[in-house]
């Protein structure tokens, strides 16, 4: 009797240890999966990550997207094998792999901070609401209030080199600048001046009723961004490499305080439709509030400074969220930077 009982207990023990073995195996497999996903190169979008970051996501898009077809960039494969085709292809390469050619250890010049144009102009400036170049060909040259001057495409590209890449631009007549301008204009070649283009630039999101909060944003950052962009916003590059896998968000290698993303509204619009990596305008991973708050957090941290005293020669044209005075209204720099913005906008 006691024997049987022992036997039974023994086989139960074996079953149990089998079970443990099995779950240990499952755990190891899961771990392996996690490692594989973390090491997959930056430019493949990973829908599976969406699941990981989905806990407080909302799928509603603030501004319903009007009917009509989403803009699509022309196909690179359609480019002819001519010198012009080659120039455009080189421009594409420079947008994608800017650091490799023009970064701190670039093969052509050392004139920028290690970021790629594509870090902010996703899929080489072709992604819907990924800060794409759809409208550039049809809207430039144009007068821009920031400089108070008429700007052509090369001037606009210079701006991103000096601000977003915290560096200097290649000379206007260099092959690199010519290639960038040719590529960017080729992207928008089928758009006519005045066309309404669905998916161009950045996704509009509604203003918050309250000020955007760096404190709330910090929690969003830790939960949804830090895994790639790092605890100190320093980004991630493999040891010995001068090229980022995950670009920095603040600190000495990030965009400077004269850059477009330093405006909290631009940052919020960019992340709403594009971050965490894998998010799209029709499958966003952040609520509007999370987008505003994480924008406030990231832009409250230290970064390189740019001398922007010559910007906005007509100060009444400063955007509502331009964080540096003087202003024509009575609101503080702090209020302009973080909001709430409604009253500022009403007074215009
Ligand atoms: C840190 C992010 C960032 C990086 C890196 C960056 N840009 Fe930009 N760029 C922006 C933002 C944001 C805007 C829109 C700014 C605004 O509307 O105020 C913009 C606007 C532009 C525009 C004008 C688009 C339009 O429709 O008017 C061009 C052209 C451009 N960038 C080219 C480049 C090129 C070329 C590079 C690389 C040399 C580059 N950018 C790197 C953030 C970036
Ligand atoms: C799975 C990794 C991953 C996560 C998580 C992630 N990002 Fe990114 N992020 C990237 C990569 C990769 C790029 C560059 C995309 C490219 O070059 O195609 C990028 C680019 C950016 C950029 C523009 C470039 C720059 O460095 O300024 C911003 C801003 C940004 N992410 C903000 C965020 C925020 C905010 C979150 C959290 C809500 C977030 N990201 C979560 C991988 C990630």
Indicate the topology:
Layout (H helix, E strand, L loop, with lengths): L1 H38 L7 H6 L30 H14 L1 H5 L14 H4 L1 H4 L10 H4 L2 E3 L4 E3 L1 H10 L12 H13 L26 H11 L1 H4 L34 H11 L13 H11 L34 H6 L3 H5 L2
Antiparallel strand pairs: 1-2
Helix pairs in contact: 3-9, 10-13, 12-13
The structure holds heme C (2 copies).
Question: What would you say this structure looks like, in words?
Answer:
This protein is mainly alpha-helical and 348 residues long. It folds into two domains: 112 residues, Cytochrome Bc1 Complex, Chain D, domain 2 (Orthogonal Bundle), CATH 1.10.760.10; 133 residues, Cytochrome c-like domain (Cytochrome Bc1 Complex, Chain D, domain 2), CATH 1.10.760.10. A two-stranded antiparallel ribbon has the order 1-2. A hairpin with a 4-residue loop joins strand 1 and strand 2. Helix 3 packs across helix 9. The radius of gyration is 24 Å and the shape is globular. The N and C termini lie far apart (92 Å). It binds heme C (2 copies). The site of one heme C (HEC) has 26 residues, from helix 5, helix 8 and helix 9. InterPro entries: Cyt_c-like_dom (IPR009056), Cyt_c-like_dom_sf (IPR036909), Cytochrome_c-type_DH (IPR051459). It comes from Pontibacter akesuensis.
């Amino acid at each position: 009797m006691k024997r049987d009982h022992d036997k039974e207990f023994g086989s139960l023990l074996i079953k149990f240890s089998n079970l443990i073995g099995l779950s240990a195996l499952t755990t190891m497999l899961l771990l392996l999966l996690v490692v594989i996903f973390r090491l997959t190169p930056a430019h493949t979008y990973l829908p599976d990550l969406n699941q990981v970051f989905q806990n407080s996501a909302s799928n509603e898009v603030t501004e319903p997207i009007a009917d009509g077809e989403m803009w699509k960039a022309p196909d690179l494969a359609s480019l002819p094998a001519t010198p012009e085709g080659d120039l455009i292809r080189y421009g594409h390469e420079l947008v994608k792999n800017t650091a490799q050619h023009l970064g701190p250890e670039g093969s052509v010049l050392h004139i920028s901070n290690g970021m790629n144009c594509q870090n902010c102009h996703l899929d080489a400036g072709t992604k819907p609401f990924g800060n794409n170049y759809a409208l550039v060909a049809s809207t430039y040259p144009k007068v821009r209030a920031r400089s108070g001057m008429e700007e052509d495409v090369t001037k606009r590209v210079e701006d991103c080199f000096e601000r977003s890449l915290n560096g200097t631009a290649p000379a206007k007549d260099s092959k690199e600048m010519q290639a960038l301008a040719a590529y960017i204009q080729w992207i928008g070649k089928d758009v006519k001046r005045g066309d309404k283009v669905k998916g161009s630039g950045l996704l509009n999101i509604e203003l918050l009723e309250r000020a955007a909060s760096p404190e709330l944003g910090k929690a969003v950052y830790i939960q949804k961004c830090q895994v790639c962009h790092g605890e100190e916003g320093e980004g991630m590059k493999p040891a010995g490499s001068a090229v980022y896998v995950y670009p920095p968000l603040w600190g000495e290698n990030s965009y400077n305080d004269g850059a477009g993303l330093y405006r909290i509204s631009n940052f919020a619009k960019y992340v709403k439709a594009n971050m965490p990596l894998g998010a799209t305008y029709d499958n966003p991973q952040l609520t509007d509030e999370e987008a505003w708050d994480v924008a406030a957090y990231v832009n409250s941290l230290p970064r390189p400074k740019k001398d922007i005293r010559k910007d906005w020669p007509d100060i009444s044209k400063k955007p509502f969220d331009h964080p540096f005075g003087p202003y024509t209204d009575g609101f503080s720099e702090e209020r302009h930077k973080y909001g709430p913005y409604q009253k500022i906008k009403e007074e215009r």
